[in-house]
Amino acid sequence: RQGWLSRLKAGLARTGSSIAQVFTGTQIDDTLYEELESALLMADAGVKATEHLLADLKRRVKEAKATDPAQVKGLLVDAVADLLAPLEAALTIGRHPTTVMMVVGVNGAGKTTSIGKLTRYLAEHDAKVLLAAADTFRAAAREQLSVWAGRNQVEIVSQEGGDPAAVSFDAVNAGRARGCDVVIADTAGRLPTQLHLMEELKKIKRVITKADAGAPHEVLLVVDGNTGQNALAQVKAFDDALGLTGLVVTKLDGTAKGGVLAAIALWARERAAGPVPVYFIGVGEKLEDLQTFSAREFAQALLD
Ligand code: GDP
Question: Cystine design at 40: which of 50, 64, 84, 129 (Cβ 3.0–4.6 Å)?
């Protein structure tokens, strides 16, 4: 655990150094708050989350009667940790004979890699996993997923040039018939231009429900944490179309835009259906580089 935390710290150093810099002075004054505002905006926390954090921090400073900027830094850790807390939740399996997960996200976000890591995580928890290559448009995506299946020694349902919804349907049925604990469907992140991604994903979701009335039990979005506010736009768009149940935020091992988690948290707080948790964060390219999300650890790593 130590290893990944130091990678997260090193990664977030690019986000956090300009924020931490704000607290090196001797006074708590308007300049400090103005500098903090710029630093949070630069870290891609977005205008709303930045305003929220500043107001919350000022309240905490007043309450604590703080006089030392170093103390304010500690209070900001508390404010960030509290803002991010609703994003904490563990992905649970075992509530259904076969938990069906549909994984979505734009190309390059780290979807296939995250599925590979997630498969390993589930296998370590003694779950029998079946993968479904429902991105039938890209041969490379299918091949990459079967490499991960091989590495994790799990079965895969894949069909060259097949219909993504049909592959998903078959995989759910196969998973149930074979007594699998989890079926994970990898989906396309981009389609040939004449087709609409969201329509295709909605169709996959509908067809999965046909195969198993309660499924998909999870609709997970993989977003690249390095894309900042763009990641938030993706979260909103995929949620509108599909109703997300969880997020995986990748590439936090080397980003200057880690503040986007604050923006996602603020959005999640105001979401009518309740917050969408961040089940995992990606902190590297290797199998073990998928970690559960802790608001306080993240806040501390950010401002270390
Ligand atoms: P997909 O198109 O969404 O399936 O994305 P891929 O899984 O192919 O990942 C795209 C690239 O991002 C690959 O080079 C991955 O190794 C890399 N990647 C994925 N997750 C992480 C992460 O958490 N950290 C880093 N540094 N790289 C990652």
Answer: 50
237-271 pLDDT per residue, tens: 999 999 999 999 999 988 778 899 999 999 999 99
Tell me the three state secondary structure of residue 82: helix
* Residue 273 is labelled as binding a ligand: no
Mutate to test the pocket of ligand 1, among 252, 278, 285 (most ligand atoms within 8 A of CB): 285
Cα–Cα distances in Å, from 153 out to 41, 83, 94, 145, 150?
44, 39, 21, 12, 5
Burial of 212 (0-12, 13-18, 19+ CB in 10 A): buried
CB 232 within 8 A of CB 260: yes
d(CA 238, CA 223): 11
> Please, which pLDDT band fits residue 304 given cuts at 50, 70 and 90?
confident
Alpha-helix runs per DSSP H in 98-196: 111-124, 139-152, 164-177
Evaluate: CB of 152 within 6 angstroms of ligand 1. Answer: no
282 pocket-lining for ligand 1 (C-beta < 6 Å):
yes
284 touches ligand 1 (CB under 6 Å): yes
25 Cα–ligand 1 center, Å: 39
Confidence of residue 156 (pLDDT cuts 50, 70, 90): very high
289 is written with which tokens? 């580089």
| Tokens, residue 201 | 């994903």
Question: Measuring CA to CA, how many Å separate 220 from each of 184, 280, 304?
Answer: 10, 10, 30
pLDDT at 136 exceeding the cut of 70: yes
Q: Find out whether 106 is annotated in a ligand binding site.
A: yes
Q: Is 288 in the pocket of ligand 1 (CB under 6 A)?
A: no
- Record the pTM: 0.95
112 lines ligand 1 (CB under 6 A): yes
Q: Among the atoms of ligand 1, which is closest to the Cα of residue 106? A: 3
Distance CA 243, CA 206 (A): 12
